[in-house]
Amino acid sequence: MATQNFSPALPTPAAPAPCPKASPGYGKRSVPDQRPPRTDDFALLPERERCIAGYVDTLPEGAAMNIKSLSKCQPLYGQMAVGSALRALGVAGHLRQARCAVGDGDTLRWVTRTFWSRTARDNEWWNTFLTTEASRRLPQPVVASATPPPPWVPAAPAAPAAPEDHAPEQRSPAPVLPPQRTGQSQGAASGDSSLAYLALTRLGPADQRLGLSEDDCRALEELAAEWFARGVDADYLVHTLTAGLPAAVDSPLGFVRKRLITKLPPRRHAAATPAPPGTPAPRLMVECTDCGAPGKAEAFRDGLCAPCRQPVQRLETHPTSAEAPSIQRDIQAHVKRLREQLKLR
After folding, report:
1. What ranges do the domains of the chain cover?
2. Could you tell me which residue, 319 or 129, shows the higher pLDDT?
3. How far apart are CA 214 and CA 77, in angstroms?
4. Do residues 116 and 28 make contact, with C-beta atoms less than 8 angstroms apart?
5. How large is the average pLDDT for residues 251-280?
6. CATH tag for 27-136 (out of 1.20.120, 1.10.10, 2.10.260, 1.20.144)
7. Rounded distance, CA 133 to CA 112, Å?
């Protein structure tokens, strides 16, 4: 007699729920120049990242890409798993997140967009793409319409030129004035009025204990010029050399020479020049896939900022994995000795 099989049918896998549409301006944006989808697009990724990448790849443009929305649509992974998978996909070169300015004037607002690439891209490709995207979003200058040319009017006949009876008069070249008559002093021409020399001449009027002669200023001019080459001005030099003077200065020349050497300011790095007025503000900033910190595209590598790329430092107080078994054996041996001593008593 045949027995009936009452085993239940195998459960069908839960289909992912449709991902909601993001708010206007937010969501997924696919990059250009991608190959058609294939079955082995994400074959080299781990199982979790491969599953989430395949789902994100099927989402339409403008779909919500935040962790909460993706975790609601994924029956197998929660928010922590989706967040870790998005970071891994950024490191693998499949996505980048950026803040984009939408609107203009009072209606300007910043939105977060996720640029998605089915094909894994390297850092150079992403930097070029994001830099081009940022420049494309800058407001373009309005080109004024060209003025139409005036209607053609016939020109009046030109008057006949007068016959030349004799050759034009040869004019003598203009006399070259000597330097003393051009408004520049002879001292300025020889370099006596340099900023370093003028600053040294101010030490005597600022404090009589540092009164220098003309020969002293000449001897110290090269040392003082090094201060100006490092970005300081005359007021800073005079204030530094005259601050905290002793009650009496026996040799102003030697004292000033020593201070010019020992108090030499450090070299200043060339600071970024402020943007001229009217320069449009950036309208796209890349975000770190892990912490969300904004910045330029060049500051990120594998979609991560510098702090997020640093490995977590281990605390020195915690034993390493190699030392843990030996410590455990020592504790067990110590407990065994204590038990034997208790038995003898």
Report:
1. 27-136, 186-262
2. 129
3. 82
4. yes
5. 72
6. 1.10.10
7. 14
- Here the tokens at position 297 are 């595209």
Does 150 have pLDDT greater than 60? no
pLDDT at 170: 52
